[in-house]
Specification:
Elements lengths: L4 H21 L7 H26 L10 H28 L8 H27 L1 H9 L1 H24 L5 H23 L5 H25 L15
Length: 239
């Protein structure tokens, strides 16, 4: 496995551009860069962990012929989506839950996208090293945004969970949504991808709809964030 500098850049830059885009949309109180880097690194570690977990889990799943709907659904939902979204959630939570400056709803989106991009960067390096330039280009517009956009929806419910915790309310419902919603998105994406030619049109439609929904959510949350704080007044703290 070898990546020259150009391929390495192509594997890494798309994810970083998505983090920068979301960072710039954080209008009220930007998160510390060192915190974002930490969560990205946790996301990288989560991708490594997911590889081991999925290999272990796959030996227990029913074995279906590749290209069948049974194979696509089982592999997509019970393996990839379940494992990968769980480890990304853990990366996000370990990196940000106790941060005192986690005090606005959009903060959750920043953390979720950072964890997703960390995961995507490592995964992308592995794929690009194996399959080259064409794979790097395709994944720059598909798989990398998938992980980042799952982080958007994960982060929204994660932020509601944090607010509920601050107010002394149950966090279970929002935590489950922070996991289940990205799992559904990821599962549908992978199901279409695993269906081969039969899934090409549904895949393309789903990717376009995902872009629209994620960007609309980012813009809406960014626009309304000034009145979505968790405390009576602004709080600025160092981590």
């Amino acid at each position: 496995m070898y990546l020259d500098s150009n391929l390495m850049a192509l594997a890494i830059i798309p994810g970083l551009l998505l983090v920068i885009y979301v960072y710039k949309k954080d209008k009220v109180e930007k998160e510390p860069v060192n915190l974002i880097i930490r969560i990205i690194l946790y996301g990288v570690i989560s991708c490594i962990a997911a590889g081991f977990i999925e290999t272990f889990e796959s030996s227990f799943l029913p074995q279906y012929e590749k290209g069948t709907i049974e194979y696509a659904l089982t592999t997509s939902f019970l393996c990839a989506a379940l494992v990968e979204e769980t480890v990304k959630y853990l990366a996000m939570r370990l990196g940000s839950w106790k941060y005192p400056g986690f005090n606005y709803r959009f903060d959750g989106i920043v953390y979720g996208v950072s964890a997703g991009v960390g995961f995507a960067i490592y995964e992308n390096i592995m794929y690009v090293a194996s399959y080259g330039f064409a794979t790097a280009v395709v994944r720059a517009f598909t798989a990398v945004p998938l992980h980042a956009f799952c982080g958007v929806f994960m982060g929204v419910f994660y932020a509601y969970s944090k607010k509920a915790s601050i107010l002394g309310r149950s966090t279970i419902g929002y935590t489950l949504l922070a996991l289940i919603v990205p799992m559904i998105i990821h599962g549908i994406y992978d199901t279409c991808a695993f269906m081969g030619n039969k899934g090409t049109v549904p895949f393309m439609i789903f990717v376009v709809l995902l872009y629209i929904a994620a960007i609309a959510t980012i813009r809406k949350m960014s626009r309304e964030d000034y009145r979505a704080g968790f405390y009576p007044g602004p709080r600025t703290m160092d981590y």
